[in-house]
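#onboarding

Welcome to the new folks! Below is a worked example of what a typical request in this channel looks like: someone posts a single protein sequence, and someone else replies with the predicted structure as tokens. Don't worry about understanding the tokens yet, we'll cover that in week two.

Example request:
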Amino acid sequence: MAKFITAIVVIIIIDFNNDLDRPRVVADTTTRPENLARSFARLMPRGPTLLIIGVLAGLIFPALADGVRPLMAAAIFVLVLGTFLQIDGEAFRRALRRPLVWLLLPAVAMLVCPLAVGFAARGAGFAPELIVALVLSVCAPPSSGTAAVARMLGFDATVPLAVTLLSMALAPVTVPLIAAGFAGLALDPLALAGRLALLVGGAGALAFLLRRQAAAQLVQHARLIDALVLASLLLFAIATMAGVRAQIEAQPIAAATCVGLAFACNLALQGLGALLTPGSLAERLTTGLILGNRNVGLVWSAMGATVSPMTALFFAATQFPIYMTPRLIEMLVRRER
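Example response:
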């Protein structure tokens, strides 16, 4: 695990050293909030690298992750709200009219992927606990931050947002059914629906009011919204590492197995998404993000005290590929360009 962290740190150092060779624009050095927001928003192109830094910071400094953990719910809300504010309404409605968006991708994400992963893991002879952890992580809807990450990478965030919302609508039905079939767990669909309605409904209603009453101001302060979204992603990345270092130190071999399996599963699902989607490389990679990055926290919270130590360890391990693969995607896109 130490070698893994060292390799990631080396990549980050090289990445920022490469940035030193790029031309810089001299920024306003005043300390007004608007200028601070603009300065932070300029980091958006470096967002994938900053997410890795956030994960590693939370892992290396457990007290930091524990301190940020209470802000996780607020960070998710700001993340979803910021994404709603940045999406073009007409483009969103056009996306919803595409069968790929309103039917195929939600069905693949919420039904095909978890069932395929579950049967593949059984066929490969995985331990029952690992099979349960894999299936429960993949039956979760796409991550709430997927649209923001897509936008950070320069992709269209409309499709990820639409598929994520539709998948969340399916989750109260599909997640309990799959959890019962593969793990024998009884999850409360109403509790799941309530959590999702509070997040999406609250953020959506506030975004609607802001767009209706302050559209011009939203355009004027677009960089501030970018800064808030990036800050929320960074806080969330740090917070997801709360307790992870202790789990790794207590079970180093199991932790290494879970991290390796989490990367393999995430990359396999991203590859499936890229193969399924017609169109440009950006469109294919966007679908990969949707299928690979899952909101395991939703299932985790729904399970409560019934989460086994192995399942909890695997859920924690899934955060590594979620916040590290965007950097790999960014490198791939740069090479293609």
